[in-house]
Amino acid sequence: MSDTLNVRQVGNSLGVVLSREHLTKLRAKKDDELHVIETANGLELRTYDADLEKQLDAGRKVARKYRDALHELAK
Predict the structure, then answer these.
(1) What is the model's pLDDT at position 1?
(2) Cα-Cα-Cα-Cα dihedral of 32, 62, 73, 39, to 10°?
(3) Phi then psi dihedrals of residue 72, to 5 deg
(4) DSSP conformation class of 48
(5) Strand ranges (E), 1-75
(6) 37 with 43: CB under 8 angstroms?
(7) Which of 18, 31, 50, 52 has the greatest number of beta carbons closer than 10 A?
(8) Tell me: the pLDDT tens digits for 35-44?
(9) In whole angstroms, what is the distance from residue 7 CA to residue 64 CA?
């Protein structure tokens, strides 16, 4: 799907307005936090997922704790 977004003046900043359809696909609502992630294909816009962040933090903690074991397993 390819759509065009217009860049508009919002106070001293610039912004884009997302359609209701785009917001529904993002599962975003008023005052949600969105993240812009740079990928090989360009920019991705994602909603913040607190549950995913907790899972990633737990995974990082395990990776730090068992760093040597994971390094050996990776061989």
Answers:
(1) 61
(2) 20
(3) -65, -40
(4) -
(5) 7-10, 13-16, 34-39, 42-47
(6) yes
(7) 18
(8) 888 889 998 8
(9) 42
Bridge partners for 10 per DSSP: 13
Regarding beta strands 7-10 and 13-16, do their DSSP bridges make them parallel or antiparallel, or are they unpaired? antiparallel
- Largest Cα–Cα separation, the chain: 54
Decide: 69 and 63 in contact? Cβ < 8 Å. Answer: no
> Phi and psi (nearest 5°) for 35?
-115, 135
Do residues 31 and 11 lie in contact, with contact meaning Cβ atoms separated by under 8 Å? no
Return d(Cα 14, Cα 3) in angstroms, integer.
19
Cβ-proximal residues to 32 (8 Å cutoff; 6+ apart), any chain: 47, 48
CB atoms within 10 A of CB 28: 17
Residue 34: partners with Cβ closer than 8 Å, 6 or more residues away: 26, 28, 45, 46, 47, 48
Q: Which residue has 């760093």 as its token pair? A: 67
